[in-house]
Every structure is written in C-alpha cells, then in structure tokens.
Amino acid sequence: MGVDALKAALPDYAKDIRLNLGSVVGTSSLSEQRLWGTVLACAMATKSPKVIAELSQEAADYLSAEAFQAAKAAAAIMAMNNVYYRSTHLIGDEAYATLPARLRMTVIGNPGVDKTDFELWCLAVSAINGCGTCLASHEQVLRKADVPREQIQEALRIAAVINATAAVIEAEAAVSAV
C-alpha cells in the first residue's frame, strides 16, 4: 500500500526514482505532519490517479482530518495561484503585478493547521507547478518563520520525487494501453 505499492510499480529504468521515493519518505527530518502534508499536497498536484490514491491512503494514517483537508486545500489553491502568478510574471509587463488578483484565497490566511506547515505544502506544490513567483513568496514566508533551508530543500526534494513517480507511472500506463 502507499509508498511501497508505488515503488513496486516503478519499472527498472526508474530505479533511481524508486530509491529516492523510499528515501525522501523513509528518512525525512520533517515532522510527521509536515512530511505527510507535503506528500499529500504533492500527490494531488501531480494529477495522477494512482499516485493520489496510494499516497492519500497512506497519508490518512499520519494526518489529522484537519491536516488532510489543509494539504488538499494547499494543492487546490496553488493550482489556481500558480497559473495566475506564473502567467503575470511570464507576460513580462510589471504593470500586472500592480493589479489586484481579485481571486479568493482566504485559505492561505486561515488554513486550519499551523500556517508554516501550510506554507511549506504550498511551496512544494508551486515547485511541481513551476511558479517562480509563488516559490519565492512562500520561501520568504518560511524563512521569516525560521524554517531552516534544509527543511525547505527537503520539501522540494519530496515534490521532485513524487512528480517523477507520477510521470513514470502515467507514462507506463499509456505505453501499456497501446
């Protein structure tokens, strides 16, 4: 179940991903809530049904109901914010940064869990979604909250490995369907 099932589903050419998946989850220095919230938020961000099913089932064993919902909320709000802020940045016209986003995002201010944990989950999802503006913003908030760079880096590693796991599993499913 969960991480073990995903590791077993990864083909031999993705051995590095398999080993990294076991490592980022099995040897984490993050608190249980930070780790499994990051795992769940990243799984949701991949949009891979298999990865979401396996990791959400395992995350439910470690997260309170509130933290489980907050991790999903981080993935949801960043799905919107990452598109908006990445786009306004990529357009290259600084005037867009002065315009109000006019997007509801109150969950960021009141996520229902420790705000620092939620910020870490948003950072990890922003890495998967490729939004530099959001990465920089959430990293600044985390650093002001005295989160060590090593923990921020760990969340980024989790995002990278879960994203790679989803990419391989979905690619293999597509090849098998042919």
From TrEMBL:
GO term, biological process aspect, one: cell redox homeostasis
Keyword annotations of the record: Antioxidant, Disulfide bond, Oxidoreductase, Peroxidase, Redox-active center
Residues at the active site: C131, C134
The keyword Glycoprotein is annotated on this UniProt entry: no
Domain Carboxymuconolactone decarboxylase-like: residue ranges: 96-175
Family statement drawn from the similarity comment of this UniProt entry: Belongs to the AhpD family.
SUBUNIT field: Homotrimer.
Free-text function comment from the UniProt entry: Antioxidant protein with alkyl hydroperoxidase activity. Required for the reduction of the AhpC active site cysteine residues and for the regeneration of the AhpC enzyme activity.
The protein, known as: Alkyl hydroperoxide reductase AhpD
Organism: Thermopolyspora flexuosa
Upper classification of the organism: Bacteria, Bacillati, Actinomycetota, Actinomycetes, Streptosporangiales
Gene behind this protein: ahpD
